[in-house]
């Protein structure tokens, strides 16, 4: 017996029957998929992006180095006198402070373009109220209200005029500089 071949009625490839509508739907779905990927991808990276740029971070680091170098004694490199910190930085007006630490200002130095906050904080505060050292003026510059800012910190020892450590800073404190 002979195998009977099935007779199939087919069409050549060029007569497949794909219409323009099929092509338009396929391309539309492809474009929507690409648009979704490009709109979703930045949200994956956003949590790891810093709101403060490299310039602000470098500026905060430079100011922290300058403050410690200006206030420290040669014999004890990271020891700061609280009274000298108050006289140099917290008692200064905004224009004088900007000139001391090298912030950008207009020609007459009336308008300062950068915001800075210099504070001395206790390393391990027990609560929010004991965060700053017990002096009349623990912070200099603009008020920092937890906005996004670049910061730099230095570990320092804060003493009075007579050389005794300030309350809360017996072992060490943190000098924090924030710029925004």
Secondary structure elements and pairings:
Blueprint: H1 20-45, H2 54-71, E1 79-81, H3 82-90, H4 94-101, E2 116-122, E3 139-141, E4 150-159, E5 173-179
Parallel strand pairs: 1-4
Antiparallel strand pairs: 2-3, 2-5, 4-5
Characterization of this structure:
The protein has 180 residues and is of the alpha+beta class. The chain has one domain. The chain is built from 4 helices and 5 strands, in the order H-H-E-H-H-E-E-E-E. The longest helix has 26 residues. It is elongated, with a radius of gyration of 32 Å. 21% of the residues are buried. This is Pilin/flagellin. Keywords: Membrane, Transmembrane, Transmembrane helix. Pfam families: DUF7287.
Can you give keywords for this protein?
transmembrane; 4 helices; alpha+beta; 180 residues; 34% helix; 5 strands; membrane; transmembrane helix
* Secondary structure tally: strands: 5
Strand sequence of the main sheet, in spatial order?
1-4-5-2-3
Distance between the termini: 93 Å
Q: Assign the structural class, choosing from mainly alpha, mainly beta, alpha/beta, alpha+beta, or little secondary structure.
A: alpha+beta
Number of DSSP helical runs: 4
Shape: elongated
The radius of gyration computed from the alpha-carbon positions, rounded to a whole number of angstroms, is 32 Å
Could you report the average pLDDT, rounded to the nearest whole number? 77
Helix % is 25-40%
Tell me the series of helices and strands, N- to C-terminal.
HHEHHEEEE
Low-confidence stretches: none
**Strand percentage:** 15-25%
Query: How many domain units?
Result: 1
Q: Mind summarizing the main beta sheet? A: 5 strands, mixed
